[in-house]
Amino acid sequence: MKLEHTEIERLIEDMQDQAERLLRSTARGDPLVIGIHTGGVWIADRLRRALHIDSPLGELNIAFYRDDFSRIGLHPQVVPSRLPFAVDDRHLILVDDVLYTGRTIRAAMNEIFDYGRPASICLAVLIDRSGRELPIQADIVGRRLELEPDEHAKLTGPEPLALVIKQSG
Amino acid sequence: MTARDIQLDQNGRLRHFLTTEGLSQQHLYEILDYAESFVGVADRAVKKVPLLRGKTVVNLFFEPSTRTRTTFELAAKRLSADVLNLDVSTSSATKGESLQDTLRTLEAMHCDMFVVRHANSGAAHFIARQVAPHVRVINGGDGRHAHPTQALLDLFTIRRHKPDIASLRVAIVGDVAHSRVARSEIHALNTLGAREVRVVGPRTLIPSEIEAMGVRVFHDVSQGLADVDVIIMLRLQRERMRSALLPSEHEYFHCYGLTQKRLRVARPDAIVMHPGPINRGVEIDSEVADGERSVILQQVSHGIAVRMAIMALIMGSVVPASAAED
Q: How far is the C-alpha of B110 from the C-alpha of B286, rounded, in Å?
């Protein structure tokens, strides 16, 4: 199975609608957008422009917060995190490409709190797939997928974006 | 097992960090790239990442050092490790034996990493051969042999100012003979393919066989500094004065001290570095040390990020390689 660029753009438009509704209903003004490396940053960048948010994009690399360091060592991706704003008392939209076990999001929230204390965080994901291992749910979802444990959803990009579901092994 | 490859595991990953000799470009760049990610940690509200939470790092210093020990301590703490500082006297006549006893004792306390500084060359290698398989060793300076973390933080500082290392002329100036920093830097700069590495100093302080390491030797400072992009000043170890290698500090400054006037023959954008602590008016003039070309204080800040990167990398290799293929 594969999602092509135009389909993904439609999903992001849908995420934009959901985000606008959520921000209105919760009366959260002037949010900041943070993407998780690498795919999350691509989605976050598009979502931020769609929502006409002027503040720069935040980029988070959770390599130093992963819970599997003692099992697999340091992650090879080393792009530094960059939050070009203060998060204190701000409403954050945290964006990732695929929500799976929830461990990445836990790590990302831990890292964000080392920068300061935000007023709120909501979670936006392009794909919400089955297989959660932690009590973490997305507020804004492009598409939900029921996948087997040996199936992996992988986003490539940034131009064009494509999502491929592959079987491991 | 040779002294060189004890620091790599069977998959070529860094296991200990003992010397820059024998490391590949890939090893060096891996450390420098990770260090870039750690620099930002110091600017945050919480200056810590949880990578080494629950690990215990022992600074095992057989030779006094404030600066190096402090930056290792901060690096370990910013990785959330617990740190124990031990200043061990070297006065014991049965050094070898007591060192092993010290190691056994610390291992019994379940320590995970030793940062070793010792006046004898080869001390860190010796310890790396003694420790249990899960324990990691970093060389914080051994005798005249190596000071690899200093070399890496210098490379990091150089790269931040001048990203294309292959195009650079680098002059290392001063007491090269007694300098473990110089040795580690020469290996690392040559591995990264620097255009030219020079050593500059009086005949008594330049080892005769040093050209074999791939450097050009200059005894005249104006010639040695001509058109260089990077100047690394070495500390003149005052204790050498007594050994008749040098006439006097004053004389040394007169012949080799870095002044604004001497700096003029280097490239106009040349940077000036020094591993510290500096002897003002001996190897470097205050005007230069505090001047706009000086990156000496940046070296100190970068030292923490680079040491964090090295600690995280080698602790990460405790994991069996088969599990790392996820």
A: 46
ipTM over 0.95 threshold: no
> Which domains does chain B carry?
3-146+303-325 (3.40.50.1370), 148-300 (3.40.50.1370)
Fold of A2-69+86-167: Rossmann fold (3.40.50)
Could you tell me if B131 and B10 are in contact, meaning their C-beta atoms sit under 8 angstroms apart? no
Closest residue in B to A74 (Cα) is B316
The set of residues, in sequence order, having a beta carbon less than 8 Å from that of B294 and lying 6+ positions away, is: B271, B272, B273, B274, B288
Q: Reduce the secondary structure of chain B to three states and give it as a string.
A: CCCCHHHECCCCCECCECCCCCCCHHHHHHHHHHHHHHHHHHHCCCCCCCCCCCCEEEEEECCCCCHHHHHHHHHHHHCCCEEEEEECCCCCCCHHHHHHHHHHHHHHCCCCEEEEEECCCCHHHHHHHHCCCCCEEEEEEECCCECHHHHHHHHHHHHHHCCCHHHCEEEEECCCCCCHHHHHHHHHHHHCCCCEEEEECCHHHCCCCHHHHCCEEECCHHHHHCCCCEEEECCCCHHHHHHCCCCCHHHHHHHHCECHHHHCCCCCCCEEECCCCCCECCCECHHHHCCCCECHHHHHHHHHHHHHHHHHHHHHCCCCHHHHHC
Domain ranges of chain A: 2-69+86-167
Interatomic CA distance for residues B199 and B172, integer angstroms: 5
Farthest-apart Cα atoms in chain A, separation: 47
CB contacts, 8 Å: B39 with chain A = 80
Contact: A72, B33; criterion CB under 8 Å: no
* Contact at CB, A65 and B50, closer than 8 angstroms: yes
Q: Strand order in B230-233's β-sheet?
A: B216-218, B196-200, B169-173, B230-233, B271-273
Per-residue pLDDT at A130: 96
Residue in A with minimal Cα distance to B55: A70
Each residue's pLDDT tens digit, B202-230: 999 999 899 999 999 999 999 999 999 99
**Nearest-angstrom CA–CA distance, A136 and A67:** 15
Q: Which tokens hold the place of B254?
A: 């007169």
User: What are the tens digits of pLDDT across the range A48-92?
Assistant: 999 999 999 999 999 999 888 888 888 876 789 999 999 999 999
d(C-alpha B245, C-alpha B237), whole Å: 11
Contact B51 A72 (CB under 8 A): no
Of the ranges A37-46, B2-11, B56-65, which one carries the lowest mean pLDDT score?
B2-11
A151 Cβ neighbours under 8 A, 6+ residues apart: A165, A166, A167, A168
